[in-house]
Amino acid sequence: MKTLKDVISLKFKTSESEGVIFHGEGQQGDYITLELKKAKLVLNLNLGINQLGSIFGHTSVTTGSLLDDHHWHSIIIERHGRNINLTLDRHMQHFRTNGEFDYLDLDYEITFGGMPFSGKPSSNSRKNFKGCMESINYNGNNITDLAKRKKLEPSNVGNLSFSCVEPHTVPVFFNATSYLEVPGRPSQDLFSVSFFFRTWNPNGLLLSSNFADDLGNVEIDINEGKVSVHINVTQVKKNRIDISS
């Protein structure tokens, strides 16, 4: 299809920081790809190249951050020729594409949730989307409803389930004064801990624990944006170990 105007909208939520949300391409060098990269939303668009290949039409726009928080986010892409409005969670960004063409010419299928392997380096380095989407609308077509009723022709619907599974993890929010204290295991000679965290603050104490029988202690903190582990052992000559990353 060859379009002068496009309106694409959908909602998504995911705990993955990478993944192709949708993709389409054509033989004239046209393509449109919406994807997550490092938990940011990236729209790549090219309305084609001229025969000499001298007009570089590739345009890339990035918006948002921390979109892998497993909350619903809404996207609206409105295109009229080279003028694009990209709206993420009601925050609109206006831009104009590079190149000299106004029409988006897509010869092949549009794919949602990933892109087909084409043998190009760009296709095999990209991850498919893992998460939930709803209210997918492409130029007036309700894609979600058509997929559910199996009315898409041709279509290659993989492992889709029409429900959204919630993650089993339970997040805990800490303010500047709160903390969580749990009992230790005095009979264990192994100390093991793992967790995910997210913060805007460059400094803060993440974990602190004293060893039994006054053998020392361990602390994990953030210092100027770096995670540091401090282990104090009282019975050893070299009694302090510091690791940062």
Automatic annotation (TrEMBL):
Organism taxonomic ancestry: Eukaryota, Metazoa, Chordata, Craniata, Vertebrata
One Pfam family in the UniProt entry: Laminin_G_2
Protein name per Swiss-Prot or TrEMBL: CNTP2 protein
Domain spans labelled Laminin G: 1-164
SMART domains documented for this protein: LamG
UniProt xrefs under InterPro entries: ConA-like_dom_sf (IPR013320), Laminin_G (IPR001791), Neurexin-related_CASP (IPR050372)
Organism annotation: Donacobius atricapilla
Name of the gene this protein is made from: Cntnap2_0
